[in-house]
Amino acid sequence: MVEKQTLVKFGQYEHICQLRDDGLLYMNNLPYFWQIEDEKLRGDEFDGVAKVMRGSNGTVTPKNELEKPVKVTSWVIRVHLAQPENINIFCMCAVHPSVETFPIDKRNFRFGDYALILTSPPGVHR
After folding, report:
1. Are 5 and 92 in contact (CB under 8 A)?
2. Most buried of 42, 109, 119, 122 (most Cβ within 10 A)?
């Protein structure tokens, strides 16, 4: 059985109406989200990451020849996409309603008092 899915966009009344009535999307580029400090409501450390590499027991060699190499016991390297200022993001959330509830993380209400709910989004099989 295929699980039902619903897409929800939270926002301010004016913006939700523009999306619903005119199809107007408001987006920001990746660097905008990297600069946001709103208690992890938006953005995360993997936004725009094209590749993640992890390892252990390595040595970091500084570019400055006067500095000594540093030994590390574990490391993570995130390789970002080229030209992040040209990559725009449109944010929505997906919910999986159960028989009696419609689970929404209450932090979403910080985006605005209104929501556009797509109950039959194209491409979602029911």
Report:
1. no
2. 42
CB atoms within 10 A of CB 32: 15
User: Which residues, other chains included, contact 73 with Cβ-Cβ below 8 Å and sequence gap of 6+?
Assistant: 56, 57
**Residue 12's pLDDT is what?**
94
Contacts of 12 (CB under 8 A, 6+ apart): 111, 112, 113, 114
How many angstroms separate the CA atoms of 48 and 45, rounded? Answer: 9
Write down the residue that tokens 């060699």 correspond to. 61
Which residue type does 84 have? P
Q: Which neighbouring-strand residues pair with 88?
A: 29
Global pTM?
0.64
> How does pLDDT run across 49-77, given as a tens digit for each residue?
899 999 988 888 888 888 898 898 888 88
The tokens 């059985």 sit on which residue?
A: 1
Long-range contacts of 66-73 (CB under 8 A, 24+ apart): none
Who contacts 64 (Cβ-Cβ below 8 Å, separation ≥6)? none
